[in-house]
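During the second year of the project, the team shifted from modelling isolated chains to modelling whole assemblies. The rationale, set out in the original proposal, was that interfaces cannot be judged from single-chain predictions alone. As a representative example for this report, we include one of the complexes processed in the last quarter. Its constituent sequences, exactly as entered into the pipeline, are reproduced here:
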Amino acid sequence: MTEKTARIDFRENSRNASPAVVAATQNSTRTALRKRAAVVAEFGEERWQELRKAGHEIRMHALTHLDRYLAMVEEKVTAAGGYVHWAKDAEEAREIVLGLATERSVRSIVKVKSMVSEEIDLNPALEARGIRAYETDLGEFIVQLAGQRPSHITSPALHMTKEEVAALFCEKLGIDACPIPEELTEHARLRLRPEFLNADMGISGGNFLIAETGTLLIVTNEGNGRLSTSLPPVHVAVVGIEKVIPDWESAAVLLKLLARSVSGSKITAYSTFITGVREGGPKEFHLVLLDNGRSRILADKVAREALLCIRCGACMNTCPVYNQVGGYAYGAVYQGPIGSMLTPLLLGTGLAGGLPFASTLCGACAELCPVMIPIPEILLHLRKRFVEGDTFESPSVPGILKAMAKLGRIVLGSPTLYHLGGRLGKIFQAPLRRGDWLPSLPPPLNRWTMARPFPAFQGGFRGWFKNRKAAVKQAEGKLHE
Ligand code: SF4
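Output from the structure prediction step:
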Protein backbone atom coordinates (compact mmCIF):
# COMPACT_ATOMS: atom_id res chain seq x y z
CA MET A 1 0.00 0.00 0.00
CA THR A 2 2.78 2.36 -0.84
CA GLU A 3 2.89 5.11 -3.39
CA LYS A 4 4.07 2.53 -5.94
CA THR A 5 0.94 0.38 -5.64
CA ALA A 6 -0.63 -0.56 -8.98
CA ARG A 7 -4.28 0.11 -9.71
CA ILE A 8 -6.51 -2.54 -8.12
CA ASP A 9 -8.89 -4.32 -10.48
CA PHE A 10 -11.28 -6.05 -8.10
CA ARG A 11 -13.44 -7.46 -10.89
CA GLU A 12 -10.49 -9.09 -12.62
CA ASN A 13 -9.01 -10.33 -9.34
CA SER A 14 -12.38 -11.85 -8.37
CA ARG A 15 -12.58 -13.71 -11.64
CA ASN A 16 -9.16 -15.20 -10.92
CA ALA A 17 -10.00 -16.18 -7.34
CA SER A 18 -8.88 -19.75 -6.69
CA PRO A 19 -11.81 -22.06 -5.77
CA ALA A 20 -9.56 -23.75 -3.20
CA VAL A 21 -8.82 -20.39 -1.54
CA VAL A 22 -12.54 -19.52 -1.53
CA ALA A 23 -13.52 -22.90 -0.03
CA ALA A 24 -10.88 -22.67 2.73
CA THR A 25 -11.90 -19.06 3.43
CA GLN A 26 -15.58 -19.99 3.79
CA ASN A 27 -14.73 -22.84 6.08
CA SER A 28 -12.66 -20.64 8.39
CA THR A 29 -15.07 -17.70 8.47
CA ARG A 30 -17.99 -20.03 9.29
CA THR A 31 -16.12 -21.35 12.31
CA ALA A 32 -15.11 -17.84 13.42
CA LEU A 33 -18.71 -16.58 13.16
CA ARG A 34 -20.06 -19.56 15.09
CA LYS A 35 -17.59 -19.01 17.94
CA ARG A 36 -18.29 -15.29 18.02
CA ALA A 37 -22.07 -15.82 18.14
CA ALA A 38 -21.73 -18.26 21.06
CA VAL A 39 -19.57 -15.96 23.17
CA VAL A 40 -21.78 -12.92 22.46
CA ALA A 41 -24.92 -14.93 23.36
CA GLU A 42 -23.27 -15.90 26.64
CA PHE A 43 -22.46 -12.24 27.32
CA GLY A 44 -26.10 -11.29 26.71
CA GLU A 45 -27.44 -9.39 23.71
CA GLU A 46 -28.49 -6.28 25.64
CA ARG A 47 -25.16 -5.96 27.48
CA TRP A 48 -23.32 -6.56 24.21
CA GLN A 49 -25.15 -3.73 22.48
CA GLU A 50 -24.34 -1.43 25.42
CA LEU A 51 -20.69 -2.44 25.20
CA ARG A 52 -20.64 -1.73 21.45
CA LYS A 53 -22.13 1.70 22.10
CA ALA A 54 -19.48 2.39 24.73
CA GLY A 55 -16.76 1.22 22.33
CA HIS A 56 -18.07 3.53 19.62
CA GLU A 57 -18.16 6.49 21.97
CA ILE A 58 -14.63 5.87 23.25
CA ARG A 59 -13.19 5.62 19.76
CA MET A 60 -15.13 8.68 18.53
CA HIS A 61 -13.99 10.70 21.51
CA ALA A 62 -10.36 9.69 20.91
CA LEU A 63 -10.58 10.59 17.22
CA THR A 64 -12.17 13.95 17.98
CA HIS A 65 -9.34 14.80 20.39
CA LEU A 66 -6.58 13.00 18.51
CA ASP A 67 -4.11 15.91 18.68
CA ARG A 68 -4.41 16.15 22.47
CA TYR A 69 -4.06 12.41 23.07
CA LEU A 70 -1.14 12.00 20.67
CA ALA A 71 0.73 14.81 22.43
CA MET A 72 0.03 13.03 25.72
CA VAL A 73 1.43 9.77 24.31
CA GLU A 74 4.61 11.52 23.18
CA GLU A 75 5.11 13.15 26.56
CA LYS A 76 4.54 9.94 28.55
CA VAL A 77 6.65 7.68 26.31
CA THR A 78 9.54 10.16 26.39
CA ALA A 79 9.26 10.47 30.16
CA ALA A 80 9.46 6.67 30.38
CA GLY A 81 12.77 6.61 28.47
CA GLY A 82 11.37 5.86 25.00
CA TYR A 83 11.71 7.78 21.73
CA VAL A 84 8.79 8.96 19.61
CA HIS A 85 9.17 9.40 15.84
CA TRP A 86 6.52 10.91 13.55
CA ALA A 87 6.12 9.51 10.04
CA LYS A 88 3.92 11.38 7.59
CA ASP A 89 3.85 8.53 5.07
CA ALA A 90 5.00 4.97 4.37
CA GLU A 91 8.34 6.06 2.99
CA GLU A 92 9.20 8.11 6.06
CA ALA A 93 8.19 5.25 8.36
CA ARG A 94 10.38 2.79 6.43
CA GLU A 95 13.32 5.21 6.52
CA ILE A 96 12.98 5.68 10.28
CA VAL A 97 12.99 1.91 10.91
CA LEU A 98 15.81 1.28 8.41
CA GLY A 99 17.83 4.12 9.94
CA LEU A 100 17.44 2.67 13.44
CA ALA A 101 18.40 -0.80 12.19
CA THR A 102 21.42 0.40 10.18
CA GLU A 103 22.79 2.56 13.01
CA ARG A 104 22.72 -0.48 15.29
CA SER A 105 24.12 -2.94 12.69
CA VAL A 106 20.96 -5.05 12.96
CA ARG A 107 21.07 -8.28 10.92
CA SER A 108 18.08 -10.15 12.26
CA ILE A 109 14.62 -9.01 13.37
CA VAL A 110 11.67 -10.80 14.96
CA LYS A 111 8.29 -9.33 14.14
CA VAL A 112 4.91 -9.39 15.81
CA LYS A 113 1.96 -9.50 13.42
CA SER A 114 1.33 -5.95 12.28
CA MET A 115 -0.97 -4.75 9.52
CA VAL A 116 0.75 -1.38 9.58
CA SER A 117 4.09 -2.98 8.74
CA GLU A 118 2.33 -4.61 5.77
CA GLU A 119 0.83 -1.24 4.87
CA ILE A 120 4.29 0.37 4.67
CA ASP A 121 5.87 -2.65 2.93
CA LEU A 122 8.49 -2.97 5.61
CA ASN A 123 9.75 -6.51 5.01
CA PRO A 124 10.88 -6.00 1.38
CA ALA A 125 12.67 -2.78 2.44
CA LEU A 126 14.49 -4.63 5.24
CA GLU A 127 15.42 -7.48 2.95
CA ALA A 128 16.80 -5.03 0.37
CA ARG A 129 19.23 -3.85 3.09
CA GLY A 130 20.25 -7.45 3.85
CA ILE A 131 18.24 -7.60 7.09
CA ARG A 132 16.27 -10.78 7.72
CA ALA A 133 12.82 -10.22 9.28
CA TYR A 134 11.10 -13.27 10.79
CA GLU A 135 7.34 -13.17 11.14
CA THR A 136 6.56 -14.90 14.45
CA ASP A 137 2.76 -15.10 14.46
CA LEU A 138 1.92 -18.61 13.22
CA GLY A 139 -0.33 -17.42 10.37
CA GLU A 140 2.19 -14.77 9.31
CA PHE A 141 5.01 -17.33 9.56
CA ILE A 142 3.08 -19.60 7.18
CA VAL A 143 2.35 -16.92 4.57
CA GLN A 144 5.92 -15.61 4.75
CA LEU A 145 7.22 -19.15 4.15
CA ALA A 146 4.82 -19.49 1.21
CA GLY A 147 5.94 -16.15 -0.23
CA GLN A 148 2.38 -14.84 0.02
CA ARG A 149 0.56 -11.93 1.63
CA PRO A 150 -2.06 -12.31 4.40
CA SER A 151 -5.56 -12.87 3.05
CA HIS A 152 -7.34 -11.80 6.27
CA ILE A 153 -6.37 -9.14 8.79
CA THR A 154 -6.53 -11.36 11.86
CA SER A 155 -6.06 -14.83 10.35
CA PRO A 156 -3.39 -14.30 7.68
CA ALA A 157 -3.34 -17.92 6.47
CA LEU A 158 -7.07 -18.69 6.71
CA HIS A 159 -7.11 -19.43 2.98
CA MET A 160 -4.87 -22.48 3.46
CA THR A 161 -5.84 -25.96 4.62
CA LYS A 162 -3.79 -27.89 7.17
CA GLU A 163 -2.74 -30.26 4.37
CA GLU A 164 -1.35 -27.34 2.38
CA VAL A 165 0.51 -26.04 5.43
CA ALA A 166 2.01 -29.49 6.09
CA ALA A 167 3.18 -29.75 2.47
CA LEU A 168 4.69 -26.26 2.73
CA PHE A 169 6.58 -27.14 5.93
CA CYS A 170 7.92 -30.35 4.31
CA GLU A 171 9.14 -28.40 1.31
CA LYS A 172 10.52 -25.25 2.97
CA LEU A 173 11.67 -26.52 6.36
CA GLY A 174 12.94 -29.88 5.09
CA ILE A 175 10.99 -31.82 7.73
CA ASP A 176 8.42 -34.59 7.70
CA ALA A 177 5.28 -32.71 8.73
CA CYS A 178 1.81 -34.25 9.24
CA PRO A 179 -1.37 -32.19 8.72
CA ILE A 180 -2.07 -32.05 12.46
CA PRO A 181 -2.43 -28.45 13.73
CA GLU A 182 -0.73 -29.07 17.10
CA GLU A 183 2.27 -30.72 15.41
CA LEU A 184 2.54 -27.98 12.79
CA THR A 185 2.50 -25.37 15.57
CA GLU A 186 5.29 -27.22 17.35
CA HIS A 187 7.41 -27.27 14.17
CA ALA A 188 6.96 -23.51 13.81
CA ARG A 189 7.79 -22.99 17.50
CA LEU A 190 11.03 -24.97 17.23
CA ARG A 191 11.98 -23.15 14.05
CA LEU A 192 11.38 -19.71 15.58
CA ARG A 193 12.83 -20.22 19.06
CA PRO A 194 16.50 -19.53 18.08
CA GLU A 195 15.42 -16.47 16.09
CA PHE A 196 13.83 -14.93 19.20
CA LEU A 197 17.05 -15.51 21.13
CA ASN A 198 19.39 -14.20 18.41
CA ALA A 199 17.40 -11.24 17.07
CA ASP A 200 19.00 -7.77 17.24
CA MET A 201 15.64 -6.00 17.09
CA GLY A 202 11.95 -6.69 17.69
CA ILE A 203 9.31 -4.93 15.60
CA SER A 204 5.64 -4.75 16.49
CA GLY A 205 2.52 -2.83 15.68
CA GLY A 206 0.09 -2.10 18.47
CA ASN A 207 -3.61 -2.67 19.11
CA PHE A 208 -4.00 0.48 21.20
CA LEU A 209 -1.96 3.32 22.63
CA ILE A 210 -3.18 4.34 26.07
CA ALA A 211 -2.66 8.10 26.27
CA GLU A 212 -2.83 8.62 30.05
CA THR A 213 0.32 6.55 30.60
CA GLY A 214 1.81 6.32 27.09
CA THR A 215 1.32 2.54 27.16
CA LEU A 216 1.44 0.37 24.07
CA LEU A 217 -1.02 -2.51 24.20
CA ILE A 218 -0.42 -5.62 22.09
CA VAL A 219 -2.79 -8.59 22.13
CA THR A 220 -1.79 -12.00 20.79
CA ASN A 221 -2.85 -15.58 21.32
CA GLU A 222 0.55 -17.18 20.89
CA GLY A 223 2.92 -15.32 23.21
CA ASN A 224 5.11 -14.32 20.27
CA GLY A 225 4.30 -10.67 20.96
CA ARG A 226 5.80 -10.85 24.42
CA LEU A 227 8.93 -12.69 23.24
CA SER A 228 9.54 -10.32 20.32
CA THR A 229 9.18 -7.23 22.48
CA SER A 230 11.21 -8.41 25.46
CA LEU A 231 14.17 -10.53 24.26
CA PRO A 232 15.87 -8.35 21.58
CA PRO A 233 17.86 -5.32 22.82
CA VAL A 234 15.77 -2.86 20.76
CA HIS A 235 11.99 -2.70 20.32
CA VAL A 236 10.46 -0.60 17.54
CA ALA A 237 6.66 -0.24 17.43
CA VAL A 238 5.07 1.18 14.28
CA VAL A 239 1.53 2.30 15.08
CA GLY A 240 -1.14 4.21 13.16
CA ILE A 241 -2.03 7.51 14.85
CA GLU A 242 -5.70 6.47 15.08
CA LYS A 243 -4.87 3.73 17.61
CA VAL A 244 -4.72 6.13 20.51
CA ILE A 245 -7.33 5.80 23.28
CA PRO A 246 -7.72 7.99 26.36
CA ASP A 247 -7.19 5.69 29.34
CA TRP A 248 -7.06 2.21 30.86
CA GLU A 249 -10.83 2.14 31.40
CA SER A 250 -11.26 2.55 27.65
CA ALA A 251 -8.80 -0.29 27.09
CA ALA A 252 -10.88 -2.57 29.31
CA VAL A 253 -14.00 -1.92 27.20
CA LEU A 254 -12.23 -2.31 23.86
CA LEU A 255 -10.42 -5.49 24.90
CA LYS A 256 -13.76 -7.14 25.71
CA LEU A 257 -15.10 -6.20 22.29
CA LEU A 258 -11.93 -7.15 20.44
CA ALA A 259 -11.39 -10.62 21.88
CA ARG A 260 -15.00 -11.67 21.33
CA SER A 261 -15.09 -10.31 17.79
CA VAL A 262 -11.72 -11.69 16.66
CA SER A 263 -11.63 -15.18 18.04
CA GLY A 264 -14.88 -15.77 19.90
CA SER A 265 -13.00 -15.81 23.20
CA LYS A 266 -13.64 -13.81 26.36
CA ILE A 267 -10.10 -12.54 26.44
CA THR A 268 -7.01 -13.01 24.29
CA ALA A 269 -4.33 -15.29 25.73
CA TYR A 270 -1.73 -12.54 26.05
CA SER A 271 -2.26 -8.82 26.61
CA THR A 272 1.13 -7.11 26.74
CA PHE A 273 1.40 -3.57 28.12
CA ILE A 274 4.62 -1.69 27.36
CA THR A 275 5.42 1.74 28.79
CA GLY A 276 8.75 3.04 27.49
CA VAL A 277 11.92 1.29 28.62
CA ARG A 278 11.36 -1.15 31.46
CA GLU A 279 13.71 -3.09 33.68
CA GLY A 280 14.74 -6.45 32.27
CA GLY A 281 13.33 -5.57 28.82
CA PRO A 282 14.93 -4.04 25.70
CA LYS A 283 17.38 -1.21 26.35
CA GLU A 284 15.68 0.96 23.73
CA PHE A 285 12.04 1.56 22.89
CA HIS A 286 11.07 3.50 19.76
CA LEU A 287 7.51 4.39 18.86
CA VAL A 288 6.90 5.36 15.22
CA LEU A 289 3.56 7.16 14.85
CA LEU A 290 2.33 6.75 11.30
CA ASP A 291 -0.07 9.10 9.53
CA ASN A 292 0.04 7.85 5.91
CA GLY A 293 -3.24 9.50 4.92
CA ARG A 294 -5.06 9.19 8.24
CA SER A 295 -5.21 12.98 8.80
CA ARG A 296 -6.77 13.32 5.36
CA ILE A 297 -9.40 10.71 6.24
CA LEU A 298 -10.12 12.55 9.46
CA ALA A 299 -11.07 15.62 7.47
CA ASP A 300 -13.89 13.70 5.72
CA LYS A 301 -16.90 13.95 8.07
CA VAL A 302 -18.51 10.70 6.84
CA ALA A 303 -15.50 8.53 6.04
CA ARG A 304 -13.62 9.39 9.24
CA GLU A 305 -15.56 6.72 11.13
CA ALA A 306 -13.53 4.11 9.23
CA LEU A 307 -10.69 5.14 11.57
CA LEU A 308 -12.65 3.76 14.54
CA CYS A 309 -11.76 0.26 13.33
CA ILE A 310 -10.09 -1.99 15.90
CA ARG A 311 -9.08 -4.56 13.24
CA CYS A 312 -11.16 -7.47 14.53
CA GLY A 313 -11.98 -8.95 11.12
CA ALA A 314 -15.63 -9.71 12.01
CA CYS A 315 -16.94 -7.68 9.05
CA MET A 316 -14.84 -9.80 6.71
CA ASN A 317 -16.07 -13.06 8.21
CA THR A 318 -19.70 -12.16 7.64
CA CYS A 319 -19.34 -10.39 4.28
CA PRO A 320 -20.98 -12.37 1.42
CA VAL A 321 -18.63 -10.77 -1.09
CA TYR A 322 -15.42 -11.55 0.82
CA ASN A 323 -16.67 -15.10 1.25
CA GLN A 324 -17.21 -15.48 -2.50
CA VAL A 325 -13.86 -14.12 -3.66
CA GLY A 326 -11.38 -14.53 -0.79
CA GLY A 327 -8.95 -11.92 0.48
CA TYR A 328 -6.61 -11.67 -2.51
CA ALA A 329 -9.28 -10.18 -4.78
CA TYR A 330 -9.00 -6.93 -2.80
CA GLY A 331 -5.38 -6.63 -3.97
CA ALA A 332 -4.29 -4.84 -0.80
CA VAL A 333 -3.31 -5.18 2.85
CA TYR A 334 -6.85 -4.62 4.18
CA GLN A 335 -9.59 -6.78 2.69
CA GLY A 336 -13.36 -7.26 2.97
CA PRO A 337 -15.60 -4.36 4.05
CA ILE A 338 -12.86 -2.67 6.08
CA GLY A 339 -10.54 -2.93 3.08
CA SER A 340 -13.20 -1.53 0.75
CA MET A 341 -13.27 1.58 2.93
CA LEU A 342 -9.68 1.91 4.09
CA THR A 343 -7.76 1.02 0.94
CA PRO A 344 -9.24 3.77 -1.28
CA LEU A 345 -9.10 6.22 1.62
CA LEU A 346 -5.44 5.50 2.31
CA LEU A 347 -4.33 5.36 -1.30
CA GLY A 348 -6.18 8.59 -1.98
CA THR A 349 -6.02 8.34 -5.77
CA GLY A 350 -7.81 6.44 -8.52
CA LEU A 351 -5.90 3.28 -7.59
CA ALA A 352 -8.59 1.65 -5.49
CA GLY A 353 -11.74 3.59 -6.31
CA GLY A 354 -13.52 0.41 -7.45
CA LEU A 355 -13.36 -1.24 -4.01
CA PRO A 356 -16.36 0.58 -2.43
CA PHE A 357 -18.43 -1.13 -5.15
CA ALA A 358 -17.28 -4.56 -3.93
CA SER A 359 -20.26 -4.79 -1.60
CA THR A 360 -23.92 -5.79 -1.71
CA LEU A 361 -24.64 -3.16 0.98
CA CYS A 362 -26.54 -5.86 2.86
CA GLY A 363 -25.37 -4.36 6.17
CA ALA A 364 -24.23 -7.63 7.77
CA CYS A 365 -20.83 -6.02 8.45
CA ALA A 366 -22.30 -3.06 10.32
CA GLU A 367 -24.44 -5.39 12.43
CA LEU A 368 -21.35 -7.21 13.67
CA CYS A 369 -18.88 -4.35 13.88
CA PRO A 370 -17.96 -4.08 17.59
CA VAL A 371 -17.47 -0.30 17.39
CA MET A 372 -20.58 0.31 15.27
CA ILE A 373 -18.95 1.71 12.17
CA PRO A 374 -21.72 2.50 9.63
CA ILE A 375 -19.87 0.59 6.90
CA PRO A 376 -22.58 0.63 4.15
CA GLU A 377 -23.07 4.35 4.67
CA ILE A 378 -19.34 5.00 4.24
CA LEU A 379 -19.19 2.75 1.17
CA LEU A 380 -22.08 4.68 -0.41
CA HIS A 381 -20.33 7.94 0.39
CA LEU A 382 -17.12 6.68 -1.25
CA ARG A 383 -19.07 5.50 -4.31
CA LYS A 384 -20.50 8.98 -4.61
CA ARG A 385 -17.06 10.54 -4.37
CA PHE A 386 -15.79 8.10 -6.96
CA VAL A 387 -18.60 8.76 -9.45
CA GLU A 388 -18.37 12.49 -8.96
CA GLY A 389 -14.68 12.29 -9.81
CA ASP A 390 -13.40 13.36 -6.41
CA THR A 391 -10.06 12.04 -5.16
CA PHE A 392 -10.98 8.66 -6.62
CA GLU A 393 -11.26 9.95 -10.15
CA SER A 394 -10.56 7.08 -12.47
CA PRO A 395 -10.76 6.48 -16.19
CA SER A 396 -12.71 3.31 -15.45
CA VAL A 397 -16.00 5.26 -15.06
CA PRO A 398 -16.98 6.35 -18.55
CA GLY A 399 -18.42 9.84 -18.87
CA ILE A 400 -21.68 8.41 -20.21
CA LEU A 401 -22.26 6.51 -16.96
CA LYS A 402 -21.64 9.65 -14.94
CA ALA A 403 -24.10 11.52 -17.19
CA MET A 404 -26.66 8.74 -16.79
CA ALA A 405 -26.30 8.86 -13.00
CA LYS A 406 -27.05 12.59 -13.09
CA LEU A 407 -29.99 12.04 -15.45
CA GLY A 408 -31.29 9.30 -13.14
CA ARG A 409 -31.24 11.71 -10.22
CA ILE A 410 -33.34 14.25 -12.17
CA VAL A 411 -35.84 11.65 -13.45
CA LEU A 412 -36.30 9.96 -10.07
CA GLY A 413 -36.89 13.35 -8.46
CA SER A 414 -39.89 14.17 -10.67
CA PRO A 415 -43.11 12.04 -10.72
CA THR A 416 -43.94 13.20 -14.27
CA LEU A 417 -40.50 12.41 -15.65
CA TYR A 418 -40.45 9.12 -13.77
CA HIS A 419 -43.78 8.12 -15.33
CA LEU A 420 -42.62 9.15 -18.78
CA GLY A 421 -39.25 7.39 -18.32
CA GLY A 422 -41.04 4.17 -17.32
CA ARG A 423 -43.16 4.27 -20.51
CA LEU A 424 -40.13 4.92 -22.73
CA GLY A 425 -38.13 2.24 -20.91
CA LYS A 426 -40.84 -0.32 -21.61
CA ILE A 427 -40.82 0.54 -25.31
CA PHE A 428 -37.03 0.44 -25.68
CA GLN A 429 -36.54 -2.73 -23.68
CA ALA A 430 -39.01 -4.79 -25.75
CA PRO A 431 -36.45 -6.26 -28.22
CA LEU A 432 -34.02 -7.11 -25.38
CA ARG A 433 -36.53 -8.54 -22.94
CA ARG A 434 -36.51 -12.25 -22.04
CA GLY A 435 -39.35 -12.86 -19.57
CA ASP A 436 -38.78 -10.69 -16.50
CA TRP A 437 -35.12 -10.05 -17.32
CA LEU A 438 -32.83 -8.16 -19.67
CA PRO A 439 -29.99 -10.65 -20.05
CA SER A 440 -27.74 -8.36 -22.09
CA LEU A 441 -27.66 -4.60 -22.57
CA PRO A 442 -25.68 -2.58 -25.13
CA PRO A 443 -22.40 -0.87 -24.07
CA PRO A 444 -21.69 0.80 -21.69
CA LEU A 445 -24.65 -0.69 -19.77
CA ASN A 446 -23.28 -4.16 -20.48
CA ARG A 447 -20.86 -3.52 -17.55
CA TRP A 448 -23.81 -4.64 -15.43
CA THR A 449 -25.13 -7.46 -17.61
CA MET A 450 -21.68 -9.01 -18.09
CA ALA A 451 -21.95 -10.12 -14.48
CA ARG A 452 -25.72 -10.55 -13.96
CA PRO A 453 -29.05 -9.97 -15.77
CA PHE A 454 -30.90 -6.69 -15.29
CA PRO A 455 -34.54 -6.82 -14.16
CA ALA A 456 -36.93 -5.62 -16.86
CA PHE A 457 -39.13 -2.55 -16.24
CA GLN A 458 -42.45 -3.91 -15.03
CA GLY A 459 -44.49 -0.73 -14.98
CA GLY A 460 -47.65 -0.32 -12.97
CA PHE A 461 -45.92 1.12 -9.88
CA ARG A 462 -48.11 4.20 -9.80
CA GLY A 463 -51.27 2.08 -10.05
CA TRP A 464 -50.03 -0.28 -7.34
CA PHE A 465 -49.16 2.63 -5.08
CA LYS A 466 -52.56 4.26 -5.64
CA ASN A 467 -54.41 1.03 -4.83
CA ARG A 468 -52.28 0.45 -1.77
CA LYS A 469 -52.89 3.97 -0.47
CA ALA A 470 -56.63 3.46 -0.94
CA ALA A 471 -56.49 0.10 0.84
CA VAL A 472 -54.58 1.61 3.80
CA LYS A 473 -57.10 4.47 4.01
CA GLN A 474 -59.99 1.99 3.98
CA ALA A 475 -58.39 -0.12 6.71
CA GLU A 476 -57.79 2.96 8.85
CA GLY A 477 -61.42 4.02 8.36
CA LYS A 478 -62.60 0.59 9.56
CA LEU A 479 -60.39 0.86 12.62
CA HIS A 480 -62.06 4.12 13.61
CA GLU A 481 -65.59 2.84 13.12
S1 SF4 B 1 -14.71 -2.40 10.49
FE1 SF4 B 1 -15.54 -3.10 12.45
S2 SF4 B 1 -15.91 -5.30 12.09
FE2 SF4 B 1 -14.51 -4.62 10.45
S3 SF4 B 1 -12.46 -5.03 11.22
FE3 SF4 B 1 -12.95 -2.93 11.79
S4 SF4 B 1 -13.80 -3.07 13.87
FE4 SF4 B 1 -13.84 -5.12 13.01
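The mean pLDDT is 91. DSSP finds 22 helices and twelve strands in the chain.
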